[in-house]
Amino acid sequence: MAGRTVKKDDKTNTWYYLFTHGINDNGKPKQYKKRGFKTKQAAQKAMNELDHSLTTGTYVKPNKILYREYMIEQWLEDKLTRVKRQTLETYTWLVKTHILPVLGGTEINNLTAMQIQGLYNKLTKEKKLSDENIQKVHTLINDSLKKAERWGLIQKNPASLVDRPKMIRKEVMVWSMDEVKHFLKHTDNESRYYIAFELALASGMRQGEILGLRWQDVDFENNCVRITQTLSSDGKEIQPYTKTRAGTRNIDLPAETMNQLKKHKNRLEKEMGEAEPVDYTDMDLVVCSKNGTPTNKSNLRRAFDKSIQKAGLKKMKFHCMRHTHATLLLLQGVNPKVVSERLGHSSVKITLDVYSHLLPSMQKETAEQLGRALYED
Hints:
Blueprint: E1 2-9, E2 14-23, E3 29-37, H1 40-56, H2 67-79, H3 85-103, H4 113-126, H5 131-150, H6 177-186, H7 194-203, H8 207-212, E4 218-219, E5 224-227, E6 229-231, E7 238-240, E8 249-252, H9 255-274, H10 297-311, H11 320-331, H12 336-343, H13 348-354, H14 359-375
Antiparallel strand pairs: 1-2, 2-3, 4-5, 5-8, 6-7
């Protein structure tokens, strides 16, 4: 037994449908009714979709759960055991500050692709978030609704119908080889932070990886370091890399950098020997405070800024030394796959995307080298 009715509600100037399908437990026809459609066609389409879902067994009974309730009480709660603390804090900030104020008051099964797209448009116009974070907002919404679909809370994930927001990559700031040499020459190599600068430029390690590097992961015999852990971005904890994470890797280093590491190690051993045992915490860190504890990132940043000013170079962030390392290798013709492995990127595509601005000049040099090989005696 089935009945289909689409009518206009003159009081609200909207359309509604009344659909009869199946029998209730009491033997009476089971009816489904929904109001609030702006057009007759919209009501008809919604009724057809309901008919299809009931016929195919994919129907999801409407619920009154607000998206806010679902995100906080279920989705974020589920993430608590699946991601690291720092990552969870970022998710929570994006959800509570930028997602829920716009979408939180809507019942989860009433969310639409247009609402989600509207949020992305709003965030883009306000420019309060970076393109990267707006993409993260999309990732979180899409993941949450995909899970809601699997859990039977919604019939279809509306975020799957919305395009991922575009991200315009800013050209990275780097030093030339001459500027790198000038910086190292005019930087106080007696400073406890000098080794951090040397490692950043010679290895391309992330700041957190440098501040989390242990002496047990420095191989003086084979002139390399093994990246196994990182200092969290808030500086509160050392986080180990898992075996499957792209960050875990070996990086070969120049002999000169290894010599600087030996010199730095001697300095730290002397400091530890002179310190009172009660005042020193030996965490085996290569870059550490005078008490052996992790280095404060603000102190490192101030030391870096001071060294740049002393060298008379253009100011840039500590992370740009990682970009400088990669750029210099690519300009010297090092295979992008090798560069990607040194940086700990999960794929060479990421490396090529970030440093694509170098490709035109690299291709020109390659063509010239090929020409000389083919046509010169």
